[in-house]
Amino acid sequence: MKTEHVITIGRQFGSGGREIGAKLAKKLEIPVYDKEILDRAAQESGLSEAVIKTYDEKPRSLLFTAATDPYAFGMMSAGVDETVENRALNASMKAIWKIEKEGPCVIIGRGADYFLKDQENVLKVFIYAPMEDRIKEVMKREDIPEDRAKKMITQIDKKRAAYYNFYTMKRWGAMESYDICINSSCHGIDGTVDILAMIASNN
After folding, report:
1. Going by fewer Cβ within 10 Å, which terminus of the chain is more open, N or C?
2. Dist. CA 198–CA 1, nearest whole Å
């Protein structure tokens, strides 16, 4: 199967989004970018990978919340607010823009759907699943008890949502923010991959 699309994947923690993205890329014979974005951002910005990783999909400091700094993203883009945090985000954005120009691929997370919002070839996907299924998955994967798994899911999803909502001014996980929202529990990992591959290759 082939596609001309860049496919961005937002995902709830424990929904299998990362695995789905990797398998989808393999099925479509295109590259997948996840942590690789951090490498590219570090190489092209001069910041260390450790600095880029510190701010990876994490919300802006509480000192600069959307309530107190509603125009922060616009200011940052204009180069007004040159904190290390903003330099790290800018580096990730530029890496995503360059990756998109290289051709069809799968990009996991990092607000890529928004940063590529003006590109016609982008298919924006969000993977979700019921909390009980995600808890079971995280318990198994991390070898932790139920209460810790639920806490981990809640914390990570909260950080992803805060990051996405602040920098994109959209709502993380909301249907209107994506082209496709799919429940991975209904179709399984491989079934979800098959559905997305069919959509990507037929559009």
Report:
1. C
2. 8
- Give the three-class secondary structure for 178: coil
Label residue 70 exposed, middle or buried (CB < 10 Å: 0-12, 13-18, 19+): exposed
Sign of the CA dihedral running 78, 79, 82, 88: positive
The domains of the chain are located at 6-202
Whose CA is closest to 152, among 163, 162, 141, 165? 141
pLDDT tens-digit readout, 40-66: 888 877 777 777 777 666 665 533 343
| pLDDT, tens digit (0-9, with 9 covering 90-100), for 50-107 | 777 776 666 655 333 433 333 344 434 444 345 777 777 788 888 899 999 999 999 9
What's the pTM value of the predicted model, to 2 decimals?
A: 0.82
**Architecture of the domain spanning 6-202:** 3-Layer(aba) Sandwich (3.40)
Give the separation between CA 178 and CA 9, rounded to whole angstroms. 9
Q: 132-175 pLDDT, tens per residue?
A: 999 999 999 999 999 999 999 999 999 888 888 887 878 899 99
Q: Please, which residues bridge with residue 127 across strands?
A: 11, 182
**Alpha helices (H) along the chain:** 17-28, 36-45, 49-54, 72-77, 84-101, 112-115, 131-142, 146-168, 184-202
Kind plus residue range of the DSSP H or E element containing 16: none
Signed CA dihedral, 161, 75, 179, 176: sign only: positive
d(CA 176, CA 193): 22
